[in-house]
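User: Hello, can you help with two protein structures?

Assistant: Certainly.
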Amino acid sequence: FFCCCINCRCNKGAGFKRAPTHFPHFFKCVMESCLSGEQLGLSLKEQTVLLLFLDHCFNSLEVDLIREQVQKLVSLPMWMCLLPVNITASHTFHVPYITPLLDMLKFYTGFEISDQTGNALTQKEMTTLHYDRITSLQRAAFANFPELSDFALSNVAAVDTRDPNTLHRVSAYLCLLPELPDGEDTPYHKEFLLELLVSRHERRISQIEQLNQMPLNLTEKIIRDQNIVPTEYYSGEGGHQLSLHDYLLRNFNLFRLESTYEIRQDIEDIVLRMKPWFSEYGGVVFGGWARMAQTIASFSIVEVAKPNSGENWPAEADLAVNRNTTTAQIVIVPTGLRKHDVCFLITVRPNLLYGTRFDRRQPFVDQAWLVYVRGCEVQSMLDDKGRVREEGPDPKPKLKGDTRTFRVWLDPNQYQQDMTNSIQNGAEDPYETFNIIMRRKPKKIKKAVLETIRNLMNTECVVPDWLHDIILGYGDPGSAHYSKMPNQIPSLDFNDTFLSIEHLKSCFPNHMVKVTEEDPARQVPPFRLKKRKANEEEKQDEEDLMLVVEPHVTHTHTHTNTLNSSTQVAWAKSILIYCRLIRTFFFLISLEYELCCRLVCVRYGRVNYVPSRRLELLREVARLQESLDVPGDVSYTCETVMSLWEEYMSKAKPKPGREVTTEDVASHFPFHKYFSNAPQPVFKGQSYQEDMDITEGCYRHIRKIFTQLEVGLKLLFDVNKIFSALMFSRHDLVELGFKVSNPEDGYSRLKRRLQSTQTLHYDHHQLPPVIKNMAFQKYSNMEQSLFTRFVRLGVPTVDLDAQGRAQARSVHLSDWKDAFICTHVKSLLVCLNLAEAEYAVALYMYAERINVLTTYNGQKHGIRDVINQRCASNSSFGQPSKVTTVDRFQGQQNDYIILSLVHTKAVGRLRDVRHLVVAMSRARLGLYVFARVSFFQNCYELTPAFSQLTARPLQLHIRPHQYYSSVSTAGERSRRDQVVKDMPEMANLVYNMYMHMIQSMQQYRQVSVLMFAEMSNAEL
């Protein structure tokens, strides 16, 4: 039982540390039970639990207590006790597994880091180290081996190659091997001695050079070899990072392999959907179609640019692709290709005859005979006359014919390797064989991330000294906290953060707050905090790292408060804001109402909105000019518009000393013609104050037009430039003129200015990005963010414990309503609970302003089917705001949320409590959960949440007699809630209420008709 509990827990060594003296005996008992399981009468399931426990122990060698026991079983001396037959069998290497390990060993034995200090070495230092080794070898040959005089007097460039003469003596002199006794032959092979000297003194290719020559996109070799990208097991990246270069390199490899896994799945799905068959005429025919792919009619190499200085690969390679679009359904997605979209060119040569059925359970490479896969990036699209179609706000012209021509950029590194292979080895040119072009969704593309990491590794990256060790996982995690930094700011203005002096003292429970103002009447905000031991004359910038852990329902309000405080305290400094969502950025700069309500937050919607809004405002200025009879065309540009404002509008001033009547307001108003499209009359003439308020409102409207053209659009244009540029990689940003300063001086003032306080806002209990490769997800922890990594390392955090979006009772799970539902049905591809779907839809039909969430796509589609069948066509109900999964709804909220947990036999993915945290923090007013409580409450990970649920009634309580926005009377509050026991009862209740509403509407309509008839007769 204890082994079973340990297997289910995440931290395998936490329980053993409480009683470490008992673990050795316990481990010995488990080993004996595994060896004599049948004699002890253990079942197969119990033996499996014991083996799984041992497997966890062998994977937890980082725990000292476990490592002491496990090392006794896997130590090197035990190999000496093996039989000769077992030793021979153990020496049989598996090439697919041993080759990557040898490459990794060779890589890290020559890693660019100092063996004495541990500091990363630059390219110049690595070259100097190589020259020193070659020089020491030459000195050894010159002093002790006269027959090697030519070798000793050669230059470095001529001797860093292999030389087989007197290998053992030279190696012994260089302390690579022990001395060879006189009269004895060397026990080592000549190849080994030669490789020993060469590996020590050969010129190593720079890691940066290898990285720059590496193609970023995958090829067919990676798709065919399952060992390159493991799908179940992976060694992991649990070791310490040697340097910042090693940290970036590991992230580069993980991102590249993980994206390769996703691309492999997409290619497999698309190729099988297109059904390539071998034609009887010797070609390839396609019997199917795919939404994200299309066949290629022809292609040609347009241009191959010359290599840049110091490089041996072309700067760029352009390829023109002609694509067939014979089916109207297939045209929808491929014609949406934009500049910088990543596509893949595929060559298939199937050996299956026409009409042969593809088996998805078998490897698709053998069925479709995948030959070549190359990545490319869309440069432009050509029309039927060969002209480049520019992207912009104008309507897209309709192209004639069924052929579309795209010009794409190839990967120059991959192109160079293909051309070299074709010329030297006589291999086939892959760029003459492509027959499929495939695209992927832009949000799945990670090419820009890989390019950015590679460009950063080519740059002298400078991380602040106080942050460097924390990123690599060394030293004290709290060393970057503001309390441990030497250059703390002496005072801080909190502005209106605190409501009163009592509020201020309660926020610092572990400190003594001394008020300098003794008069209680004058102890009002804003408050300014001063540290007693701070040096007032030292004006330095505070450098620290602050992690702010947010409540689950705060959204962007904490970001706004932090930005407000930062701008008030450091108003003269530059503040860099990084947001994952564009809408969050506009919310922070107070443009949510003016901009985000109309802004299309997609890739090109932001770009197209700016000129369209500018033209709209210029048309309004033209109407204003016409109404005032101003000569000329002042609405041509923003500059001429401002001249109109300076010449006419800004000079309007009130004339004092004259009494104005109500009639004078309307007679002297100069903008009657401009506001002719407003509801008439503009002035009612009943009150002077009312008419003056209308006049001021009209003037504010006109002034707002000029203000947006002068300030607002300038801001929109700058923001538009920033986010348009973010579509490109870091290399493109640098080419566009963005400068990156990396000072090398550790005491540089510029460095201190650039690297000031860093504040990270996040809730690490939210859902991480979805990592489809289970090996990377489990063993590499790739889904972990930088914020979560800092929290796990023990970096001090500021935990916010208050929120202002949802109701307090909803936050504390006191308003959850649960119901017992029947079992779920799990098919081959979906997980569906039809009863929960019917119950959720019935509750939606009872109320409104509701989102329906679930944890599985199958249940989502099932709920949508029920909604389409029950209430989509009924105007009385309609469809809910959104029916989606918890993962998709992360970061959004609504007044009421209906949550369906689906499972009744296995906990499933909900065992990851982050799904539950996100699900129960999406509602503002009410959260309704449909689940089998008796099943979920026994799950250890879900105990904190379901312990509060079970303290409340476990059936749905409703108040049919109370309506929204109505005030409850004493009699209504005394009426008891109606308890709904199951789904059929809820469905009958909704049906009866609907029929009652229909009858009431019919009666009201009949009464209205009678009243209208009586009124007509009375008039006659």
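That covers the first. Now for the second protein you mentioned:
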Amino acid sequence: MDDAIELNQQTYDWCVRAFDRVKSLLGVRIKLHHEHGQIEQGDIFLFNHFARMETFIPQYLIYKETGAFCRSIAASEFFKGDDRFAKVLYDLGAVPSDHPDLMPMLARDILKGRKIVVFPEGGMVKDRQVLDDRGEYSVYSRSARSRRKHHTGAARLAIGLQIVKLRVLEEHRRGNHELLRSWAELLDLPSRDALIENARRPVTIVPANITFYPLRITDNILRRGAEMLHGNLSQRAVEELIVEGNLFFKTTDMDIRLGDAISPVQAWVWWERLLAAHLSRSISAPSDIFDGDFLRLNLVRKTAAKGLGASIRRLRDRYMRDIYGEVTVNTSHLASRAILKILDDGNKQFNLDEFKRVIYLAIKKLQRHRHVHLHRSICNPTVYRELLHAETPEMNQFLQSAVDADLIELYPNKISFKDKLAVEHGFDSVRLENPVEVYANEVEPIKEVDAALTEAINEVGSLSRSAYAKLMFDDELIALEWDRALFDKPRHREINHRETATADPNPYLLIPQSAADLGVLLVHGFLASPAEVRSLGDKFFAAGYTVLAPRLKGHGSSPWDLRERSWHDWFGSVEHGREILNGLCERICVVGFSTGGALALLLAASQAHGIEAVASVCAPIKFRNKNMRFVPLMHGANRIVRWLSKYEGLMPFRPNESEHPHINYRNMPIRSLYELTRLVARLETEIKHVSCPVCLVQATDDRVVDPASATLAYDLVQVKEKEIHWIESTRHGILSEDIGGTHALLLDFVARVAARRSGQPVDEMGHSAPNCT
């Protein structure tokens, strides 16, 4: 083989190290998804092609993951005219697509343990249109100016090499060591045994998909700089500099998702196995199987090769389907398909709030399909649930791009679709002129997307508040899964493994068959989870109340997660719980323990819709531990250390000696203690705004919260309908342990609140005055 085209390991390594340094300067965030050992198993990796700069990234990632070098196929024009540039391409493993010994060279590389990277579309598919009018897979060919199937080169390489491997194994069974030794030398392998060992592994193809998100069509410095240097640019150059410059130099997610490995030998039917076996016996050298003249000169070989042509085409069609099936679905995909569906229904405009709810409903439906790959922004409820309230950054960006492209008009509560959406644009202008079409084309092969959007459009105007509430509660369950996964990286595991909590940390929603119109929102305490209030929740449920216990952000997942959260995040969890419960009940009584009690009082002080009363148990305003006064200082020191060094701080966590280690975190973030002090400070200024009935419960000798907190809260609350109960106990956790009849007190308070509107006889709210201080 020509040494000029052998890759140069020194150059390869240098380029990998250079990209390691440059990557942090780029806006693109590259994420490789693979779960089943595809990189190690795979021989031939196939990718879709949307941008020029993406063509070297798969090789880089494969090398970083496995240390394996890659051979890639590039257009022949890149190797003409500039010998130095061609030399660099050869050094990096690229070979021209018209090389006369291309297939034997690639087969040899696979046998030597290298990976082959192929873009079988044969060029960039800028419009992302991969289905024709008949629903068949095809792509536009710039050279042919028509649509065609993928090239079959990858399929021919895989099947040809598998036939070579069949011959190697056959000769090994026969004991033909001399032939195998000569073939090993011919293939530049170290030994006959290495050839045999490799032949035992079936050839595998790994289809993969590259999805960029978002697409941006605004001008950039790259395009302006190129125009200053070269004068007027062609339309094609302008389009590529704008779109692809934005992809790589502005914040963009590049999801590279590897599909299941395909082995041609496992897909052969019995007669194809016979044909392959016959061809394998007819070759005298590995390269013969790729030699068209050799196969055509003999009628039997020609017939066998033609018979395997169906296998090649079937394999090509399989990996075409799998490549596009691995797309990472995002908000812009859904919004684009929704626009086209609404237009197909004959509507030129749509209510903007309903449009966002359509996208939310479609997301919820797609989450049921585990085989549909969703972008992380629509896996994380914290991001996508804002579609029900306001425009998310993702939706904002999509809508603004559509406005900039003159595809839609936005009004305060309406989206209007313009005629340009239906105009056909050229191959080199469609990404700028109609990004909606590009997004919509990209997910057209995912039938579940259209089905979800059709259902969502049909339901959006009629879905009940309770149905939305249940979907939003499902988001709460998903959020815990998301947060657990996010904070389960190697750097988190030492702290995570020290944790002692075993109780179920999931939020829970309990709906009786004949529910009262009053619901109970139960809020757990600092370092705990909804499990802390489960026994009380079950009693409220048995009494006929709908009960929701949300999970405060950062809790029930990892101490590292809690460290990243502020008290505003905790309050947001409670407020979101109130919103869910309001979808199921007209009236709400909030019951909180410890920090949950402080949050309950703060929620009542915010005059939130539907709050009828609030009960707070052992809520902190003052603490027993006098060292709490040093928490702001310690938090500040930690921040300085994190800023100046790679360390997490002087003392990022401190041990927590909990009364309930099966529920609470063992490791307490210092930052979270600081946030607790901020929450308490806010409560002291806001509690005077509470306007509903209040019930305060406090342990007399609480070892965590200074009992004076209850007296102070009672005095600060301005409403007349307030009561305070003292529980004789040295414990802080009087609610979870039901010390001194705490549960009965709370059940009685809620019953009296519930009866106020129902017309049932009830004592005055202040009947417990003798217990007040």
